[in-house]
């Protein structure tokens, strides 16, 4: 009977050690997964920063700075406004004369729906 009790105690102790090893292995696995996730996030962040830097270089090379683009648009707008103002000044007298001619040239006519009784 004593040998059975001793055998049971050994089995229980072995089972306890096995459970501890499994628990420790799970902890190590969770730790490795967490570390791998952090490394992947760091790598993604580095890649994103590199692509952002490349994009800014490309943008500066091909488009210029934002201030430069805004200044160019303002200059083009001013030129177009000046051209429009010149066209208005050139055509102003002729347009006014045409409008006045239409207003002053009154031709009284009977409306086509008017019936003479």
Report the sheet-strand fraction.
Answer: under 5%
Main β-sheet description: none
The mean pLDDT is 89
Rg value:
45 Å
Determine the N-to-C terminus distance: 141 Å
Helix content: over 70%
Number of helices: 2
- The rough form would be described as elongated
Structural class: mainly alpha
Element order: H for helix, E for strand: HH
List low-confidence stretches: none
Secondary structure: number of strands: 0
Summarize it.
The protein has 2 helices and no strands.
List the helices and strands and how they pair.
Layout: H1 2-63, H2 66-104
Task: Please explain how this structure is put together.
This protein is mostly helical. The chain is built from 2 helices and no strands. The longest helix is centred in the N-terminal third of the chain and has 62 residues, at 2-63. It is elongated and about 140 Å long. The relative contact order is 0.03. The mean pLDDT is 89. GO terms for molecular function: ATP hydrolysis activity; proton-transporting ATPase activity, rotational mechanism. It holds the Pfam family V-ATPase_G.
Structural key phrases:
mainly alpha; 117 residues; single chain; elongated
């Amino acid at each position: 009977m004593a040998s059975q009790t001793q055998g049971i105690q050994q089995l229980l102790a072995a089972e306890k050690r096995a459970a501890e090893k499994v628990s420790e292995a799970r902890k190590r696995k969770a730790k490795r997964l967490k570390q791998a996730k952090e490394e992947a996030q760091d790598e993604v962040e580095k890649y994103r920063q590199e692509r952002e830097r490349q994009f800014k270089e490309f943008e500066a090379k091909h488009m210029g700075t934002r201030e430069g683009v805004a200044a160019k648009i303002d200059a083009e707008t001013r030129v177009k406004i000046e051209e429009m103002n010149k066209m208005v000044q050139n055509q102003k007298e002729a347009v006014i004369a045409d409008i006045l001619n239409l207003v002053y040239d009154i031709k009284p006519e009977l409306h086509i729906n008017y019936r003479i009784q």
